[in-house]
Amino acid sequence: MRPILLGICAAFFFAFTFVLNRAMELSGGSWIWSASLRYIFMVPPLLLIVAWRKGLLSLFREMKKELHNWLLWSFIGFVLFYAPLCFASAYGPGWLIAGTWQITIISGSLLVPLFYETIQTEHGLIRVRGQIPYKGLAMSFIILIGIAIMQLEHATKLSVKDAMLCVIPILIASFAYPLGNRKMMEVCNGQLDAYQRVLGMTIASLPFWFLLSLFGLFTVGLPSKGQVVQSGLVAIFSGVFATVLFFAATDLVKGNMKKLGAVEATQSLEVLFSAAGEVIVLSAPLPSAASLTGMLLVIIGMVLHSRISVKTENMKSETASA
Prior knowledge:
This protein is mostly helical and 322 residues long. Helices cover 79% and strands 4% of the residues.
């Protein structure tokens, strides 16, 4: 239950990303600065937290061992995740981006065969290649239907090109985030806590963010003061609070792909949090009845996915102990 609660708290703070990114886009800010400033601003608070917890030396020691893996999976897990999300914010409201983002639940399930999980047998603990959780995946398609309903209504107001510029970047991000996160858990192998892992991945991704910033400087100029402030808020609420909570939740269930999928499913609540945030903060109109129906299906799919994952794991444990 604790990993699920941590996942829900992470979803609340992650919603700030979609609301504030939309606010920056509406005020004329570039997605380039929305993406790069978040991770640049994340470094100082994370450094202070990890230093206070006396974890800097062990973090740098672990990063030195496999620097190439840190650079690779941080690029995939952070850069290929967040830059496309910020790009997509130019083509849809925050609640729509958050809703479409929930396809990551399906993406995460499809990635399971790339990893090994630890199971208990009569001969002790063994590591086996993960298998796609088909029952959970079936529940995930309810989420996909909800996303389709939201996107179809939105697409009627956009050209096919703009609709694709909203969907395709999110699809890329939906695979990149769970892949980078899970691979870094394998690399760390329990040697680092969530704070250290987030800081390490942030530092490892900085070269890419600096390059993107240079590109932004020569193409769109410097960011406005408002965008700098809002990016700082995203860095604290989403980059630090949400990411650490989510990584802590996934750390609690590492090695168990079904429970990991259930934790990742809690992120569908970002849809409701984002919709409420846009109405309150941006005075945006309430989503239409069709969009609300889509949101409801996303939430129902998340709940069913979690229940199936937990039920399957309980049956698996009973079989192993029999």
